[in-house]
Write a structure and sequence with these properties.
The complex is a heterodimer of chains A (about 140) and B (about 400).
Chain A: H1 11-16, E1 25-28, H2 44-58, H3 76-105, H4 124-135
Helix pairs in contact in A: 2-3
Chain B: H1 3-6, E1 10-16, H2 21-25, E2 43-45, E3 51-53, H3 72-80, H4 93-101, H5 104-107, H6 120-128, E4 130-132, E5 135-136, H7 143-152, H8 173-178, E6 186-190, H9 200-206, E7 211-213, H10 214-223, E8 229-232, E9 239-241, E10 244-246, H11 257-272, H12 275-279, E11 281-287, H13 311-314, E12 331-334, E13 342-344, E14 349-350, H14 353-362, H15 371-375, E15 394-397
Parallel strand pairs in B: 1-8, 1-11, 4-13, 5-14, 6-7, 6-8
Antiparallel strand pairs in B: 2-3, 4-12, 9-10, 11-12
The chains are: A mainly alpha (about 140), B alpha/beta (about 400).
């Protein structure tokens, strides 16, 4: 049996669940918007998350590093911005690594023609240039 | 095999932050005496020698500021209260909190706990599905080392928040699954890039492809494309997101507890709303550690982990052999195959139970694991209902 008082169970929501007679619909109140505080000082948890991200950031190629001085991070808002930039950089650097690896391992294009010429055929432009040269 | 276990394809773990069992669920004892919560008579002495009794007047926010200390030395004081014989007595919580602000009245707030009606999501899930009377954090210490036990079955000798690198013999549960034959799928979902993950140094840094966001999780649930194993992290900070203001949902003091309630409800509903997923998924909601808040159950001894934290590491002048668990935390297992009102008693669980359970279910025998994980209880035997329940609650999220 649910421990919630009936006051927490919305009649409208109950109606919405018609057909499932035993199913309770539980109202979940939203936290007030006034709870938001990006100026809250960073907690020990966020501080260690920042340190760990900095450790990861230092291992990234230079072009992905943020150059943010982490000791200047004082608030949750500041922390979030640093966390966002480094998390994105880690993903971007990883994606670039994968792209490079794919390029390296990409097999050479093989012609369907078994006996491809050793030298590429002259293009129209090259042929024209060669003709012009020989006329001179 | 019970039908629920036979149909189980997905295990989802949602790990919240820093609240003890009694702080969140202790009041449920009054509703169901089988739940090992509070009688209302439990107490701690304050620094003036007064007896401070627990009270059900915990608030969503602004009460536990500063953040109660939960590093190793503080938790040692909370558990042993300086007892030279080192018998755990859970009598040092008020003294520990006093050390931070030197304010006698404020230090008593560490004994406050929630009324059930203030936590409609957590208390409904606890009473509708299976609540664990004995799920302990893995270490009497802070977040990072405790979360490591959920990912690796060990913290590799660490008892704090410092950087560490995994010991190669013990792979993460994610690597075990994706490296297996046949291959399994696994993902860690952090909230968004501005919140990110707590598993940075080993996994995010080296294998960012293992990660997704909360939106990716919701999308995967809707499309029925959830990986075999998912670990979900809440939002760790208040920030501006793509869709406006995002409140921290981790319930870490001093973040709003109601925001965490909504977050738990959305994870549950995302699974619940997809009928195929609902009947083939087990969701574990658990907290990483107690965050300094009061609990009355002394943590038991456990199988040593094979590592030793030095006196310098512990900060209490004595070494720690990882032979005792941390403070008890809320843990609830959710599935339509779990009989309503299940209370798991007489068995001890900890975060190493997570990789132990996932490994057992998806891989069967797998030897290279920590001694703690090998000894850890697993929990899928709780899916005992002979038929799929059709009376599971739904949340109307405001």
């Amino acid at each position: 049996m649910t421990l919630l008082s009936n006051a927490l169970i919305s009649n409208d929501a109950r109606a919405a669940s018609k057909g499932v007679s035993l199913m309770a619909v539980i109202k979940v109140p939203a936290a007030p918007k006034s709870s938001m505080n990006q100026d809250r000082p960073v907690s020990a948890l966020l501080k260690s998350q920042i340190l760990h991200l900095q450790e990861a950031e230092f291992r990234l190629p230079a072009e992905y590093q943020t150059n943010i001085y982490i000791h200047s991070i004082q608030t949750e808002g500041d922390a979030g911005e640093y966390i966002r930039q480094v998390t994105r950089a880690i993903h971007d650097a990883h994606a670039a690594r994968i792209r490079r690896a794919k390029l390296k391992t990409k097999p050479k294009r093989t012609s369907t023609k078994a006996a491809a010429p050793a030298t590429p055929p002259k293009t129209k432009a090259k042929k024209a240039a060669a003709k012009k040269k020989s006329k001179k | 095999m019970p039908p629920g276990l036979d149909q189980l394809k997905h295990i989802v773990v949602l790990m919240m932050e820093n609240r003890s069992f009694d702080h969140m669920l202790g009041a449920l004892k009054a509703q169901n005496p089988a739940i090992d919560g509070l009688t209302g008579a439990e107490s701690n002495p304050d620094t003036a020698g007064n007896k401070i009794v627990v009270q059900n007047i915990a608030e969503f926010q602004s009460q536990l500021d500063p953040d109660p200390d939960h590093h190793f030395p503080a938790v040692d004081l909370q558990i042993f209260n300086g007892d030279p014989a080192r018998v755990p007595n859970m009598q040092g919580f008020v003294k520990s909190y006093f050390n931070q602000r030197r304010d006698l009245a404020h230090s008593q707030k560490i004994m406050y706990y929630f009324k059930p009606e203030n936590l409609p999501v957590l208390t409904t899930l606890a009473t509708e599905f299976a609540v664990f009377n004995r799920w302990f954090s893995s270490i009497p210490g802070p977040t990072i080392c405790n979360r490591a036990f959920a990912h690796y079955g060990s913290s590799f000798g660490k008892v704090a928040m410092d950087l560490f690198y995994v010991n190669e013999p013990f792979k993460s549960i994610y690597n075990r699954l994706i490296d297996a034959t046949p291959k399994h799928t696994a993902k860690l979902y952090y909230y968004d890039q501005t919140s990110s993950t707590m598993e940075i140094v080993n996994l995010l840094q080296h294998q960012p492809e293992l990660f997704g966001t909360y939106k990716d999780f919701l999308d995967a649930c809707e499309k029925g494309e959830l990986p075999d194993y998912c670990f979900v992290e809440p939002n760790y900070n208040d920030h501006e997101g793509d869709d406006g203001e995002e409140l921290a949902s981790d319930q870490h003091p001093d973040h709003n507890v109601q925001a965490g309630e909504s977050f738990i409800a959305t994870i549950y509903q995302a699974i619940r709303n997809n009928a195929d997923l609902w009947k083939s998924t087990a969701l574990l909601v658990v907290y990483d550690e107690h965050g300094g808040t009061y609990d009355h159950v002394p943590p038991p001894a456990c199988t040593p982990d094979g590592f030793v934290a030095t006196p310098n590491d512990t900060g209490i002048g004595i070494e720690f052999k990882f032979d005792r668990l941390g403070v008890r935390v809320p843990a609830i297992l959710i599935s339509p195959w779990i009989p309503k009102g299940t209370v798991i008693d007489g068995r001890i669980f900890e975060h190493a139970s997570i990789p132990a359970t996932v490994t057992k279910h998806f891989l069967g025998s797998y030897d290279p694991r920590s001694p703690r994980e090998k000894a850890a209880e697993t929990f899928l035997d709780l899916l005992t209902s002979p038929a799929l329940r059709d009376d599971c609650p739904v949340f109307d999220i405001g």
